[in-house]
Amino acid sequence: MTALHELTITQAGQRLRSGRVRATELAEAAIARAERVDQTVHAFIRVTAERALADAARADAELAAGRDRGPLHGIPYALKDIYDSKDLPTTCHSALTAGHLAAEDSEVERRMKRAGGVLLGKLATHEFALGGPSTDLPYPCARNPWDLERFTGGSSSGCAAALASALVPLAWGSDTSGSIRTPACFCGVVGLKPTFGLVSRRGVFPLSYSLDHCGPMSRTVADAALALEAVAGHDPLDPASARVLARDYTSRLTEGVENRRIGYFRRWLVDTPNVSPAVIERVDHAVEILAANGAEIVEMTGPDLELLNACGRIIMSAESFAIHEDNIRNRPLDFGRYSYQRIAPGASLSAADLILSQRVRRELVRRMEQCLAGLDAAIAATAPSTAPLLSAFWDDWEPASLSHTIGFDVTGHPALAMPVGLTPERLPVGIQVIGHLFDEASVFSIAASLESFLADDMVPSPMTSL
Amino acid sequence: MHSGVDDRRVQDDMLGRLVAAGVQVPAHLVRGVLAGCLDLQRMCTCLRRETVTPEQEPSNVFMFDFAFDSKEYAGPGEGGHDGTA
């Protein structure tokens, strides 16, 4: 029988409702596992054991009384530590936030509580969701459960590490240039960057106002769909929240891909300098599997990757400097080295640079819509390489190579990262499934089909068996 | 390391921009900051190659048109999901 820590949300829900397990048992098992495994993975900044047990006891009592809040009722989850949860510190993995306690819940946390979830704790990030894996911060950086000497990807580093080592079945991350999808890729888990405006960012520490997205991370596509269903929808107090109805994201998960038209941004991958041949092989294989199961594949050149990167990076740099301006000026030594070296350059941009990037952004949205016209969805690699060694990061920060993820933060389209197998070195490779604006249902449907086709290629990380 | 970081003229130009913005970079962080500044300048050059049209002017701050789906608009009083249901 599957161990408690390996249960998906759906499986755990079935056991809860059939009386084979209690929410309290799930929480106790998760707390005990976090105490044991997280000493090496460092996914958590804080395990909220007392609160988790109280929430779980309440969930059990409600189920016993016939009140069922839905699929997340009694399910443990964790939050990237930039999300506010009332009366808990929100550290942002930084010394600059010392002493801060959240006065209110973030909107995601409020909706998770409403859905009956059990908060297990707050997860490691890069400082302010931007810096990088650093040794000069108050908390250790998360380690990749596939190889503890490797980078998790960031900045939702703790989310991916916690999922890949089976510490929780659900985590909430944030994505401004790929911060959900890159760690999902490097750690072999699922992560959704929803359409801009679909999930409230209220109560989540901002990195870049016009690029920030909140989204679920999980071990299966179906679990991410369940989480989105519980939390998506308009928040009148988030200025960027779209006035759309939350949709049904789960009923099409078994629809298959026959006669679906799916684009493939293959040139982005093969034209990347120093791309890993093993990554090309795995991504091509996933696309071939879709074709073998009846999908029509349309290879696309897409909007220019360099232009998407330039637009996103300039907006993010300008907005993040604006957010941290006072501390960059007055408390530079309280930042970690990487965060400072990534935020301060925003001060070198001119107003004209920012305005130009906003104008180009509009054009890029139009071009992406043109690319996706007539398609059900599209596929792109999540990253052109597997997780690098952490030892590559301990010097000054250096500009990264072109991101394959930031483009969809720029254009706002939904993009789900999912694993598609391992390289011969047994490191995960991932793809993105990209959809039309607010069409997460199609994204989940195609991703869930691919997940089932590739089931034999997927294995859990070595940390899962600990 | 990024090309130009060791060029004194480039260093002075970039650090001058930062000082004008009120940012005094601690000495041990200068190289990484300069690398970031130069990368951003390269990206600005990339954007300037684009031809922008009058339609792309960014004055309408009241609507991110790509974030709204008029078919599903459900504002107050129209049966919309206000997050409290």
UniProtKB/TrEMBL annotation, chain A:
InterPro entries the record matches: Amidase (IPR000120), Amidase_dom (IPR023631), AS_sf (IPR036928)
SUPFAM superfamilies assigned: Amidase signature (AS) enzymes
Pfam families: Amidase
Domain called Amidase: residue spans: 25-443
Protein name: Amidase
Organism lineage: Bacteria, Pseudomonadati, Pseudomonadota, Betaproteobacteria, Burkholderiales
